[in-house]
Structures are given as C-alpha cells and as structure tokens.
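User: Show me a protein chain along with its predicted structure.
Assistant: Here is one chain, sequence first, then structure tokens.
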Amino acid sequence: LVNLSEQAPNINFDLRLQRFRPEILGLSEALRDTEIGLSLAANLSGINPDKMNGYLVVDSLRLRRGMDSVMLQQVKLTVLAEENDQKHIRLSSDIMTGSLSGAFRYAELPYAFMRLAYQYLPDAFPATTASRILAHHAAAPQTLDFYLYGHRLKPLQRVLRLPFTLGDQPVLKGFYHEADGLFGVQAYATSVRVSGTPIEDITLAIN
C-alpha cells in the first residue's frame, strides 16, 4: 500500500515468496537448482530517498542450492534520515551486522567515489568520463563512516559456492570525509581459503 495523501508518502507492504526458483528467469546458469523462500515487510515514509525513514524486515529467509541450504531467522534494515542530509542505516541479521552513517546523498555517492579515484588514478579514466567528473559539483562534501561484521558465514558460503571462503567474524570498516580529503578502509579475516589453499590472519589497511 502506498499512501500519497500525506505530506511524506507512506509505503507499507508485505511480500511472501515460497520456493521461488530464479533460474526460470533465464538470467544465469549459476542460478540453476537455486530456490528462495522469504517473508518481507516494509514500512517507509519520506518525500524522496534522501528523506526516507523506516525499515525493511526479511523473516525466515531460506536459500537452497542443490543439497546445501541455509535459513536466516531475520534480516532487518533500518533507515533514519535527519536534517542536513544526515543518515543512519543499520543492518542486523543472524550472520551479519553493519552500519552506514554520515552526511551524504545517495545520488552523489558515485560521483564522490569517482572524484576520489580520479584524484589518485587520473590516467585510469577516459577523457569524457574525467570531464564529467570534474564538471559535476556536489551541493556539499560527502561524509560517511561504515562497518560490517560477519558471523557464522560457513552455511551461506556453501550455498553461494563462492571461489573463496572466509573464516569466522570477518570485519570491514572505513570512512570517507570528502571535505578533509580523508579516507580509510580496513579489512580483517581470521582465515581465507582460496582454491583449497588456506591463508591465516589477513589484515588489509588503506589510508
């Protein structure tokens, strides 16, 4: 249900999928023998995406691929928008928790990251893309801080059949403060296995 009679439109809906097989869409052979089941509830309000407040909740998310399957009891995404483009987005689930906060606009983020990349790797961009990056002027510098923690990822990794596997409790966190020209990313995993080869205690830091 979408209510447009209020000053800030409200979006409320429920969705239930039972034994959905994405391979029928013909998108990719990688989706063969994949089955999805979930219950989704949404309650959002706001005059545009940057003013949106509310939550999305996925209950009883079941993924199956061949003989492997995983069940997530709940995945919840909450969004809080405040004045001056301040936002707080939080993710919680059985296997992952995370947060993204700062003063930013969704449409401006791609340009902000391209400006950052162009600052250090100008020769990597074609002339037309570089001109577009330099010609775009943001209403305000973008600021964001984020983190993502994983736990009990092994069942999900078996279903997804990734070319690598992560050990328990991997961490990804970072920040980007465009006005000060500061950014940083840190990643840590107790172990990573690639093509059967284990690598222990991996730490990556970029500043």
